Request: fold
Amino acid sequence: MSNVTAKKPRKLGTTSTAMDLPATPNPNLQGDQLLHFSHPQHPLLQISLPYLFTCMGCKEYGAGRRFRCQTCGFDLHDFCALAPPALHNHPFHHKHQLVFFTKPGGFLRSKCDICGKAAKGFGFRCTTCSFEMHPCCAAMRVVMNFPTHQHPLLLSPSAAVATGDPSTVCSVCQRKRSGRVYRCAAACGYCLHAVCAKDIVNGLYVHGLRSPDKPNNMLGTAAKLATQALVGIIGGLVEGIGEGIGSVLMDSIGRGSCRSIKHN
Ligand SMILES: [Zn+2]
Ligand SMILES: [Zn+2]
Ligand SMILES: [Zn+2]
Ligand SMILES: [Zn+2]
Ligand SMILES: [Zn+2]
Ligand SMILES: [Zn+2]
Reply:
């Protein structure tokens, strides 16, 4: 009766909605405070805010749970902040060991093999071949439940990525995009890009946010709209003034002096 093996039934975690990167005990994590090497000047606090952020680790978007510097607003995804130094036997690339890196190092390629987007910051890279992926992509699983569909979805092997195949229209973005694809495990035809699945894992979906594809263009549009609005307001003001106070003010504006109004 002595050596009863106290093995707890372990969930294999093949079907999961949670981000469960292998959690190695992190000596820098104290309660909900983390001292992270990428931001040594201040401790980061694990909090949840419904707003979009850019992770300063992987440079990808996120929303909801994060590690945030309360002093300067530095944000990290949970899985970037707590990324282990290496991944062994990861279901996306089980044949080789993957090591954590902070900057893309390859000269030839720095593209995530799961979502197809550029790797611009933190990631995991294979020590043997050219495989690499974002930490948020590493937090996904081969079979996952997503809130967008009632059946579990299965990540297609990279070889099965079809281009131009109408059956690969993503149910979330309905666009053609690179990267791998999740398909319904019950074979009902539902299809979801890994890059779109990532917005669910990153917390964007649950907060009603979408990944801004081209932030520069969006900023440009916003600035243009703001300018148009401002022109509209000024135009309206000038019209209103023109009817009311009369031409004196208009004249004074024209002359570049406002004092003349009181003077009259
Ligand atoms: Zn990140
Ligand atoms: Zn800080
Ligand atoms: Zn990725
Ligand atoms: Zn490899
Ligand atoms: Zn999509
Ligand atoms: Zn289905």
